[in-house]
Amino acid sequence: MRKPNTKEIITSGIIDQLVLMGSGGGWTYTQAMLKWWVNIQRDGGLRLTAVGDKMLRTVDVEHYSFPLDLPKVDSLSKTKEVTHWNGALLELDNKMPCPYYLGRSLDTNDKGPVIRLYDGKTAMLIELYGDVFAYLKSIRVTK
Questions:
Q1: How far apart (Å, rounded) are the C-alpha atoms in residues 50 and 65?
Q2: Residues 6 or more apart from 43 whose CB is under 8 A from it?
Q3: Local structure of 61: helix, strand or coil
Q4: Sheet holding 100-104, edge to edge
Q5: DSSP state, 47?
Q6: Distance between CA 40 and CA 20 in Å, rounded?
Q7: What is the Cα–Cα distance from 64 to 22, expressed in whole angstroms?
Q8: Closest C-alpha among 30, 51, 50, 37 to residue 7
Q9: 70: DSSP letter
Q10: DSSP code of residue 44
């Protein structure tokens, strides 16, 4: 028997919590994996769909929101930065160590895209680095 990964543990835990709260909605494990995660592959990233984001908020998982702006390329230093959304999405999928949702802010006054994180440690590190992409640039991924 294989060891469950982070995505599987989170999914099972949220389903259990929803059942305890009486608002399980009849989610099976397979349905939840298909509806809550953008990348349903076992080793895929932890990006949530809108439904998954709603389920985590339903069980009161603490979340943190940050503006999501692509970094500007500094033409003088010739550094390679993420300059397109496709590259940004791939980098998030490969490197983000916690569940996250990309969308609009829950605050109706904010107009731009945000990333909503479900991990206090990662949120603190992003705050220290200044933005999401500066944090991702500092991470080394070994799979």
A1: 15
A2: 5, 143
A3: coil
A4: 64-67, 113-117, 100-104
A5: B
A6: 25
A7: 26
A8: 37
A9: P
A10: S
**What's the pTM value of the predicted model, to 2 decimals?**
0.83
Q: What is the pLDDT of residue 1?
A: 63
Burial (CB count <10 Å: 0-12, 13-18, 19+), residue 45: buried
d(Cα 137, Cα 109) in Å, to the nearest integer? 29
Residue type, 88: A
SS3 91: helix
**Of 82, 1, 99, 117, residue with least CA distance to 44:** 99
C-alpha 33/C-alpha 39 separation (Å) is 9
Phi and psi (nearest 5°) for 11?
-60, -50
Give backbone dihedrals phi and psi of 47, rounded to 5 degrees, phi first: -75, 130
Q: What is the pLDDT of residues 1-46, one digit of tens each?
A: 677 889 999 999 999 999 888 876 688 999 999 999 999 888 889 9
